[in-house]
Specification:
By secondary structure, the chain is an alpha+beta fold. Helices cover 27% and strands 35% of the residues. The strands form 5 sheets. Strands 14, 15, 16, 17, 18, 19 and 21 form a 7-stranded antiparallel sheet that branches.
Length: 485
C-alpha cells in the first residue's frame, strides 16, 4: 500500500486531484476486507493508466516544442552627461545622438513541417515577428540559426525556418474544431526559461475574444485553459490527451503577470491556412468586405425588426468596396455568410477574414424587415494604415441609436421627441470633418422626417442625390450639415 501511495505522489495538478477522488471513493464505498483491497488496487491501476498516458504524451510532444531566442535592435537617445547641456554645441543639442540597443527575448515554438533540409517552426508574432536575430534550441540542446518565413500580426502568428540534414521530430496537428469544454489538455513550453516544461489542465472555454490590451491578434478566437501558462510559454503547444497539437499558447489574463489559471491558445485550425499561405506566398491575405459594423441595441433591433436574431449591423460602407459594389447598404443586418449563421460582428469579421480574396461569397441580410441574399466578391484587406487612409471614403461615416428615455433625459430633449442620435463617428470620415458630433439628434434628411432608426436608414438609402443635408438638433438649436455621398 505504501508503494502505491508513493506512486500517487508523482502525479501533479488535476491528476493528483483525480487520484485523491478515486481513492476516496474506493475507500469509502468499497466493501470491507478483500473486496476493499481489490477496489483500491483497481483504482490505483486506473490512475497508473492515466499517468502512463501522460508519460506517452510528454514523450511525444516535448521533442517537438523548441525554445525561440530572439534579439531585437531598438534605437533610443544616447545617455548625455548633465555637463553636455552647458558645454555641447547647439548643433549637437538639436540633434540628440541615437544609440542602438540589443533587446533579448525568449519564447517557444512548435516544429510543424519539414521540406528537405528546411524545418519550419510555428510561433507567435509577438515572440519573433519583429526579431533581428532568431536562435532555435531543441529539447535535446541542439541549436540552429533561424529566419522568418512570414508573419501575421492579425492572428499573432509567425513561421520560422532553420536548415539541418539531421533528424528532427515533427508535431502532429490535431483538429481544434473537435474539442469540448472539460477535455484534458497539456501545455508545453519554456516558462521563464525552464525548458521543456509540461503542465496539465482542462479546456475551460472556447471561442473567447482577445482582451483589450492583450498581445494576441484580433482575427482569431481563443481556447481558454487552466493549464499553467507563463512568460516563455508563448508559441508553445497546447495538446490533447492523444498528443495532438490543438492550440498555440498565446497569452494569459492575470492581475500580477503570473499564471492564475486563465490562459489562452490560438486554435490550431486557425493557423493551418496561415502555414500554407506562408509557404506558398510568404504572407497571409485576408478577405475584405468593406464595411463598418457593430452590435445593435435592443431598441434599434426592434425598429429594424431583427430582435432576437444573431448578426451584425452595417453602419457604413467604404466607397468602391466589394460590399458597396454588390449593393450592401447602411442599416443592413447581416445574418449569414455562405449559409453559416453569424453570431455577432466579431464573428463576421473572423468569417470574412478567413475567406480568400477574389472568392465570391453569399451574404444573407435583413433590409427593411425583408431577407435578401446577394453575392459579393471579396478584395484583399490592407494593413491598418490602408484602412485608416480609406476612412474619408466611408458613407455615411457614423452610427445612430434610437432616442431612449435615458438618452432624452441626458440630452434634455422634450418628451416624445423623435429622431435618432449619432452614437459614434468614424475617425477621418467626412462626417467628422463636416462637424457632426456624438449626441447630435438627426430629425430630417433632405427635409424628410426621421422618427426612428428604421426611418433613418430607409430615407438615407432612398436619397439618390449626391448632396445630403442632415437637419440636426444640438443643444436645443437646429442646424443643417451637408455631406457629399
Amino acid at each position: 500500500m505504501t508503494h502505491k501511495i508513493k506512486q500517487l505522489k508523482r502525479i501533479s495538478g488535476r491528476a493528483a486531484a483525480l487520484a485523491m477522488l478515486i481513492l476516496f471513493l474506493t475507500l469509502t464505498l468499497g466493501a470491507d476486507g478483500g473486496d476493499r483491497n481489490e477496489q483500491i488496487s483497481q483504482g490505483v491501476t486506473a490512475l497508473e493508466n492515466i499517468q502512463n498516458a501522460f508519460h506517452l504524451v510528454a514523450g511525444k510532444v516535448i521533442p517537438t516544442v523548441v525554445e525561440v531566442e530572439v534579439t531585437d535592435v531598438v534605437k533610443a537617445p544616447a545617455f548625455q552627461s548633465p555637463f553636455d547641456f552647458f558645454f555641447d554645441s547647439p548643433e549637437k543639442n538639436n540633434s540628440p545622438d541615437q544609440r542602438e540597443y540589443r533587446r533579448y527575448g525568449l519564447g517557444s515554438g512548435i516544429i510543424v513541417q519539414r521540406n528537405g533540409d528546411k524545418v519550419y517552426v510555428l510561433t507567435n508574432y509577438h515572440v519573433a515577428g519583429e526579431a533581428e536575430e532568431i536562435n532555435i534550441k531543441l529539447s535535446d540542446k541542439r541549436e540552429f540559426k533561424a529566419s522568418l518565413v512570414g508573419t501575421d500580426d492579425k492572428k499573432d502568428l509567425a513561421l520560422l525556418v532553420f536548415e539541418t540534414g539531421e533528424q528532427v521530430p515533427i508535431a502532429e496537428l490535431g483538429d481544434s474544431d473537435d474539442i469540448h469544454v472539460g477535455d484534458w489538455v497539456l501545455a508545453v513550453g519554456n516558462p521563464f526559461g525552464f525548458s521543456s516544461t509540461i503542465t496539465s489542465g482542462i479546456i475551460s472555454a472556447v471561442g473567447r475574444e482577445s482582451a483589450v490590451g492583450a498581445s494576441g491578434g484580433n482575427f482569431t478566437e481563443y481556447i481558454q485553459t487552466d493549464a499553467a501558462i507563463n512568460q516563455g510559454n508563448s508559441g508553445g503547444a497546447l495538446v490533447n490527451i492523444k498528443g495532438q497539437v490543438i492550440g498555440i499558447n498565446a497569452w494569459i489574463a492575470s492581475p500580477s503577470g503570473g499564471n492564475v489559471g486563465i490562459g489562452f491558445a490560438i486554435p490550431i485550425n486557425n493557423a493551418k491556412q496561415d502555414i500554407k499561405d506562408f509557404l506558398t506566398k510568404g504572407k497571409v491575405e485576408y478577405g475584405w468586405l468593406g464595411i463598418t459594423m457593430g452590435g445593435i441595441v435592443p431598441e434599434a433591433a426592434q425598429d429594424l425588426k431583427v430582435e432576437g436574431k444573431g448578426g451584425a449591423l452595417v453602419y457604413g460602407l467604404f466607397k468602391d468596396s466589394p460590399a458597396f459594389k454588390a449593393g450592401v447598404l447602411p442599416g443592413d443586418f447581416i445574418t449569414a455568410v455562405n449559409g453559416k449563421e453569424v453570431k455577432d460582428s466579431s464573428q463576421l469579421l473572423h468569417m470574412i477574414g478567413s475567406l480568400a480574396p477574389g472568392v465570391t461569397t453569399r451574404l444573407t441580410l435583413i433590409r427593411d424587415a425583408k431577407e435578401i441574399n446577394m453575392n459579393v466578391t471579396l478584395a484583399v484587406r490592407g494593413d491598418e494604415k490602408t484602412i485608416i487612409d480609406r476612412a474619408g471614403k466611408i458613407w455615411p461615416g457614423f452610427s445612430v441609436v434610437p432616442i431612449t428615455p435615458d438618452i432624452a433625459k441626458q440630452l434634455k430633449l422634450k418628451s416624445g421627441a423623435n429622431g435618432v442620435v449619432i452614437a459614434q463617428l468614424d475617425n477621418g470620415s467626412a462626417a467628422l470633418t463636416a462637424g457632426l458630433k456624438p449626441g447630435d439628434v438627426i430629425i430630417k434628411i433632405n427635409e424628410k422626417k426621421v422618427e426612428n432608426v428604421r426611418d433613418f436608414y430607409r430615407v438615407l438609402n432612398q436619397e439618390k442625390n449626391h448632396d445630403v443635408r442632415f437637419r440636426i438638433l444640438r443643444d436645443n438649436t437646429e442646424l443643417i450639415i451637408g455631406l457629399v455621398r
